[in-house]
Write a structure and sequence with these properties.
The chain is mostly helical. It has helices spanning 2-29, 31-51, 65-87, 95-103, 108-135, 145-173, 181-193, 213-225, 244-270. The chain has one domain. The longest helix has 29 residues, at 145-173.
Length: 274
């Protein structure tokens, strides 16, 4: 039995490597797939340039709060948007092919993890481009520059990956990509409404922010910029008080949770046992 398990693990690892290479080849060989991925970050960078103030973080007073909040909000929500746009069709569009490959012995855990890996790499590149481009015209004036830069880009990346994982789960639930539009819209609206950034949430809905990736991403980014300390008498967010590692840990946990849920869902569909 132990020998079989070791062999099975090696086979699963081989499947994973083959699937990762194949997925990258598919992306780079198809212009219709590659072009949207390339253009997403530059297009969103243009939007950031148009709507964000370049001196919002240097003034560090109540008057600058709105502009600073808008900048952080736009960067984090756009990171989330790129994540779910990258993933929401990835599984349901391959249902027919996946059925044949599972029948031929494909391990579904390796399949989902290959998707997760490739889309995470894409998300990292997109977020680095978006954040790096923003640095050319916005001075975030971090109290601790080294920690500030790292926490900010990490918040964008993990927000992207966590929402991407949610998109994979949605894709696993549905048979056609057209059916994913409404769930995707709901997830996007959730990031905007419940991120607890642009407007205050009522007592009945305040708990939802703790389930919203964008809220944690904004909390980490804002904490790195010290926004919570600019005018505490008129602006103080509870989530901004958490240590950045807590927010980043929650985002990582959301990503892992939905990756596992995606695996469980597909194994139920195809009745594949470990």
């Amino acid at each position: 039995m132990k020998k079989f398990r070791r062999h099975s693990a090696r086979m699963n690892l081989m499947h994973y490597r083959v699937l990762v290479r194949r997925y990258f080849r598919q992306i780079f060989s198809t212009l219709g797939t590659l072009l949207p991925l390339i253009l997403q970050a530059p297009v969103m960078l243009i939007i950031v340039y148009l709507v964000c103030s370049n001196d919002a973080f240097t003034q560090k007073n109540a008057a600058a709060l709105t502009n600073a909040n808008v900048t952080v909000f736009v960067l984090i929500v756009m990171s989330a948007l790129m994540g779910i746009l990258n993933s929401y069709r990835e599984i349901c569009k391959e249902r027919d092919v996946l059925s044949r490959e599972v029948f031929g012995g494909l391990d579904l855990s390796a399949y989902v993890l290959s998707k997760f890996t490739v889309l995470s790499v894409i998300g990292i590149v997109q977020c680095v481009i978006l954040y790096g481009g923003t640095l050319t015209f916005v001075d975030f004036a971090y109290p601790d520059p080294a920690t500030g830069y790292l926490c900010s880009v990490a918040a964008m990346i993990l927000t992207n990956i966590s929402v991407m994982a949610v998109g994979l789960f949605i894709s696993a639930l549905l048979k056609k990509s057209e059916s994913a539009i409404l769930p995707v819209l709901f997830i996007i609206i959730m990031q905007v409404v419940f991120c607890d950034s642009l407007f205050a949430l009522g007592d009945g809905a305040s708990w939802v922010r703790y389930l919203t990736p964008a809220a944690w991403g904004i909390a980490v980014f804002s904490n790195a910029c010290g926004i919570n300390n600019w005018a505490p008498e008129i602006f103080e967010k509870e989530m901004f008080g958490y240590h950045p590692l807590v927010g980043l840990g929650v985002l990582a946990a959301i990503a892992v949770l939905f990756a596992l849920l995606t695996i469980v869902r597909l194994k139920r569909v195809y009745r594949q046992k470990d």
